[in-house]
Amino acid sequence: MTTSDARVRMVGVDLQENDDSRAIVDAIEEDNPDVVISRMPGLVRVQRPHRLVVNQASVERHIGRPWETHEFQLSIISYFGHIDEWDDDEIVVAWDH
Amino acid sequence: MQYELRTQVVDQRRSTFSYLEPRLGGKPATRYEEGSVGIQPKENFHYRPLWAPDHELYGADWSALQLADPDAFRDPRQYYYAPYVAKRAEMHDAFGKTIDYLDERGLLARLPDTWRRLLTEVVLPLRHYESGAQLLTVLGSRFANGTTVAQCCSYAAFDRVGNAQLLSRVGISLAEGSDALLATAKQAWLEESSLQGLRRMIEELLLEPDWGVGLFSLDLLDRAVYALLYRHLDTVALLDGAGPYSLVVQHLNSWFDDQRRWVDALVAAWLSDAEHGPANRALLTDIVAARLPQVQEAVEALARGIDERIDDEGVAAAAEILTGLRAGLTGQQLLEGKPA
Fold first, then answer.
1. What is the ipTM of this complex?
2. Which residues of B touch A65 (CB under 8 A)?
3. What residues in B contact A40, CB-CB < 8 Å?
4. Domain B71-331 has CATH 1.10.620.20
5. What's the pTM?
6. Smallest CA–CA separation between B45 and chain A, in Å?
7. Shortest CA distance from A22: residue in chain B
8. What's the structural domain count of chain A?
9. Is B173 in contact with B95 (CB distance < 8 Å)?
């Protein structure tokens, strides 16, 4: 039995709802077309088919101060997908198979 | 018996203040936006000011430099009261530590005589430059249209007082706790020949009723003065055995980087404005044409003053800084490109 390839596999992150995360969500929204954002009390779920990118430069522009990618740890509650890259300039969440 | 656990989400009635909602399109507002956007009154003013009966209390017509939608401007640093105050407290703490370090080891007293002269005769008097810059900037905090712009001006004006205080504290430390050097610095501001260009420009700008014109002109001067005194001399000091100078001015350097961010953003907003962009560009070009020669003269005099006191090539450095400033303005198409 094989699962259908046509099934869309989402990746995504759950972030705390606070001022810093809002800037991160804005940056993700800007860099990833078709991203789905659901806001719940206390948390924001950001998801997208296959691949989600967080660019350090975009976050810095929205947050108004220097921001390093490891600060993402402070906002993140949970994620689904595979963390493909966690570099100084970007974080990529994607399925690698 | 079986329980099924489900989450139920109750949608918020509103995500932010009702006057912000249409602007943000349902997205939650940041604290900065809630505290800055759309705060200034725009209508229903009862009385016009007696001292300016041709204006309303607040409005676009206080400056010829206008934005079609001033509330669309954002401070790139997103300062509202709390982060601004926290940031500056940090800066002044760091400066206090520097001064304590210098005091404990008597490093300012051991500055080479040449650098001591430079500090007391040329750099300390600039507390009056900062004070003039404060008056120029604070005009914007009253007359700028839109809180997001006025707020930046207010903070920049506070910053200028802070910068003057930094310089004063250096003067007090240099004089081992007395204000004697500050008194001579005042005299130097009035009489020292290398500073008269700066004083002249500041005092002329104080007569400028348009806050935007004053702010932009001051920024032209700032860019040259800060680059020469605090960035160029910073390097020279380190190589010339005047480390304390560098320790002190690093704080002014990092402040100026911070200041640039919002001024650059405001100028970019003026230039790219859909409605007023061309008029703003014409006016800014006129200001550059009128003020740049004056900036050049003032900074060249300042550089000669530096060269008289320490072994430096300040005049050459000033020329390089002015070329850089010109290139930047040419890049923004505020100055006609001339072959170098």
1. 0.74
2. 77-78
3. 7, 9
4. yes
5. 0.88
6. 34
7. B30
8. 1
9. no
